[in-house]
Amino acid sequence: MLFACLFVSLHHIYTYIIKYKPMKIALIGYGKMGKMIEQIALSRGHEIVSIIDIDNQDDFDSEAFRSAEVSIEFTAPQAAYGNYLRAFKHRVKVVSGSTGWMQEHGDDVRRMCSEDGQTLFWASNFSIGVAIFSAVNRYLAKIMDRFPQYDVELEETHHVHKLDHPSGTAITLAEDIVENLKRKESWAEDTTDPKLLRVDHIRRGEVAGIHTVRYDSEADIITITHDAHSRQGFALGAVLAAEYTKDHSGLLTISDMFKF
To answer: Are 257 and 244 a contacting pair, CB within 8 Å?
Structure first.
């Protein structure tokens, strides 16, 4: 059943990737991810009408930015919420992979999307592979809920430049496990409490991102891993999200775009 569902979902993904219309995109944040997103967007026939970085914030009020059908935002966590407000001011839809703002501003963003007609597509990770991996993670947790002899832990590895931990993807994976595994009440780093899901982080070299979930027992161990070869998959996913967001509204997520 799992493989049948994944086959249908993969067919849906492939069909979606090849069906899109060119559109006007604004980029908010022009670091490594922003430049990669630009390359992929251009290769798919889209037009970059505005690029906003730390040194040209006034361009949020430019005619070029206002002409964008969707903006793609990849900046620092402390800047993300303010960027949303500046884009929403001009009714420009936002696709964002920035993390760290939800606890303080999540309720406000949800209200703006549900009551004020704004649109935000947010994901902790835009990789298609991670979307599939997340679906497998949820399904496996449901199965393992019946087998208490297995303890579970999660580990994420990223490049040395990533200062926050655990990663947003690891948090999402952990929350999905806790939701489906009754013997875990929550997750925590560096914990030995059996009621908590242990989440570890490693910072090494230029690793794009590795996420591993392990179910260990005295008899054996079951492991699932997603290992990103580069950031290109994240950038492609962000552009696909923008293509989806153009014709949808409200608070959107990967699960809206890909039905697993």
So the answer is: yes
Catalytic annotation, residues: 158, 162
Contact between 238 and 131 (Cβ < 8 Å): no
Backbone angles phi, psi at 60, to 5 degrees: -60, -30
Residue among 167, 226, 176 nearest 202 (CA): 167
- Both tokens of 192, joined, read 């030995």
Angle of CA points 171, 160, 176, to nearest 5°:
10
Q: What is the pLDDT of residues 231-244, one digit of tens each?
A: 888 899 999 999 99
Query: How far is residue 69's CA from residue 49's CA, in Å, rounded to a whole number?
Result: 10
> Could you say which residues of the chain have pLDDT below 70?
1-20
**Counting Cβ atoms within 10 Å, is residue 120 exposed (0-12), middle (13-18) or buried (19+)?**
buried
Residues in the chain: 260
